[in-house]
Amino acid sequence: MNELYILFGLMIIGAIAAIEMEDLLSSVISVSAVGLGLSMAFLVLKAPDMAFTQLIVEILCLIILIRATIKKDLPFSTSGRWILNTTITIFFIVVFLGAVSLALMELPEFGHPLMKVGEIYLRDGFAQTGATNLVAAILQDYRAYDRLGEVAVLFVSFIGVLAILRREGRVSAAESKKDLI
Amino acid sequence: MKKIKEPGMSVIVKTVARLVARVMLLFGFYVVLHGQVTHGGGFAGGVVMALVFILIMLAYGKEGALRTFSRTGALTTAGIGLILLVAIAFTGYWRGHFFANFLGQGWPFEFWSAGVIPFLNIAIGLVVLGSLYGIFAALTHFHSEEEEKQ
């Protein structure tokens, strides 16, 4: 459990840094550190599917937030030092391809998964919940937290649409702009 | 003949929508209520029920749909569903742990089986119905307001 406490400590430090940071970009990166720590915590707690989901969502959010916080485009130089740049690029491509091929070697064979959770669902799902629809048993009983989260996201998105598209806010904003002019 | 511009689509679409809407709503109820026995469940049934009102809105125009199911009604429906979901979860907490299945399992393939899952399905269906229809109604309303300005 020690690595879990280290991860939680890092996540708390990242969250505090995200609040205290003056620069917007730095605080975005601190928040992303919290999310990556959470995905590693899922991995330590033996929930790799949640870890993958968290990692993908985190990277997407990070890219969108960085794009939103940077005002001007990133500098992209095309002239000078091209030998060094190309060498570094090829080096990293080779390193990542080697790492990926090593990781693929370690994968279990098709049809022999390491995850034993699905087996337990299939064997005991009916006996434990009494639902003949096993999908409902998993979604509404074993994974009820997930379901609550999904439904809450839907509800919050509805309220968000109502708040963004409400008439009063837009009208008053237009009027205040008129006042300024 | 004088052409009167009515909101919505043609007579054929309106007649078919009027005939089909109640059957679709019944099917949505069926899918929600039998989620623990057959395929489907709260989310799928809620989407079917929301599509009924979206169909009415497409066929009869914004006013007709908002007369049958207003935006406040959609918000209330979604809110009641979410409150029901959290209430079931906390009742389970009182009987053991969060989201505990505190009702009896019943007989397999019967309607009253799987304890708390049917009620969770109903709650999820209400939230999905209200939210999906509400988002569609809000976006349509916004669009028509922009057209009125021009």
Radius of gyration of chain A: 24 Å
Number of helices of chain A: 8
The description of the largest β-sheet of chain A is: none
What is the SS-derived class of chain A?
mainly alpha
Amino- and carboxy-terminal Cα gap of chain B: 29 Å
Distance between the termini of chain A: 62 Å
- Residue windows where pLDDT falls under 50 for at least 5 positions of chain B: none
List its traits.
heterodimer, A: 181 residues, mainly alpha, B: 150 residues
In short:
The complex is a heterodimer of chains A (181) and B (150). Chain A is an all-alpha fold.
Detailed description of the structure:
The complex is a heterodimer of chains A (181) and B (150). Chain A is mainly α and 181 residues long. Chain A has two domains: 72 residues, no CATH class; 66 residues, no CATH class. Chain A is 80% helix and 0% strand. In chain A, helix 6 packs across helix 7. The longest helix of chain A is centred in the middle third of the chain and has 25 residues. The model of chain A has no long low-confidence stretch (mean pLDDT 82). With 150 residues, chain B is mostly helical. In chain B, helix 3 runs antiparallel to helix 4. Chain B has one domain. Chain B is 71% helix and 0% strand. The two termini of chain B are 29 Å apart. Chains A and B meet through helix 6 and helix 7 of A and helix 3 and helix 4 of B.
